Amino acid sequence: MPDHPTAALAARISFQGEPGAYSHQACRQWDPQAEALPCPTFEDTIEACRSGAADLAMLPVENSTYGRVADIHHLLPESGLHIIGETFVRVHISLLGVPGASIGDVTEAMSHAVLLGQCRGFLKAHGIRTVTGADTAGSAMLVARAGERHRAALASPLAGEIYGLERLADQIEDRQNNTTRFLVMSRAADHARRPNRAGRPDMLTSFVFRVRNIPAALYKAMGGFATNGVNMTKLESYMVDGVFTATQFYADVEGHPDDPALARALDELRYFTSALTILGVYPADPLRSG
């Protein structure tokens, strides 16, 4: 059974990438019983959920090593979807080879450029040269199709399982704490208070806003969170429509909009903003603190 009350209704979850991608792993982690629907792009992933082809969409937003995922913050406000949950995936990397191969047979390894950069120590120690692929799971698929003992892929253990490759080495990443955060999106908003997987009532609220064109607007807008004791866990800015003077901010804060302290902080924020949109109210995954 799924660990999340909302996930019980998810027959299908869309994600970007090939089967076996880390986004696919996030879908399984959220609800092992749901069907994962691979999509070519983030836009396609969103549209699959928006059109009803999928019940939920799984979108990566940030990585502990490489920061935020490009384009996602632009897509979220315009998606028409709502955040109803989050999940964190540890990026464990395996060296995947064809059946019967050994590490000594491997002379080249294929993967996405970002993942190749996370295994430099292992690859150098074994004299394995790198080949850049379009993505991690796609690289595993190509290696499986080629069927050559000297070629391997760097991808998730799930990709090895799906494409019939053997795990020649596991957890070969240079940084053992590399983690990607995913947001779970739905067509319908769910602002109900609900426990997280650990049974705790910890809630998060995510929103985007634009400040009014007045001196120190951002400073004044943020003041309400400080004076009301609301913890802001994320604040990022990004350009809107390619205009240097148009900046939008994305924020995550702890709490529920019905909490008196957060309600007061949001009221103050509205006074100094020209636009404010709540993207989601959802349980904080217990993995964010661990």
UniProtKB/TrEMBL annotation:
Domain of life from the UniProt record: Bacteria
Domain ACT, residue spans: 206-283
Annotated site residue numbers, Essential for prephenate dehydratase activity: 180
Domain named Prephenate dehydratase: residues: 12-187
Pathway connected to this protein: Amino-acid biosynthesis; L-phenylalanine biosynthesis; phenylpyruvate from prephenate: step 1/1
Keyword annotations of the record: Amino-acid biosynthesis, Aromatic amino acid biosynthesis, Lyase, Phenylalanine biosynthesis
Protein name (record): prephenate dehydratase
Cited PANTHER family: PREPHENATE DEHYDRATASE P PROTEIN, PREPHENATE DEHYDRATASE-RELATED
GO terms classed as biological process: L-phenylalanine biosynthetic process
GO molecular function: prephenate dehydratase activity
Reactions it catalyzes: prephenate + H(+) = 3-phenylpyruvate + CO2 + H2O
SUPFAM superfamilies referenced in this protein's UniProt entry, alphabetically: ACT-like, Periplasmic binding protein-like II
GO cellular component: cytoplasm
Organism: Paracoccus contaminans
EC number of this enzyme: 4.2.1.51
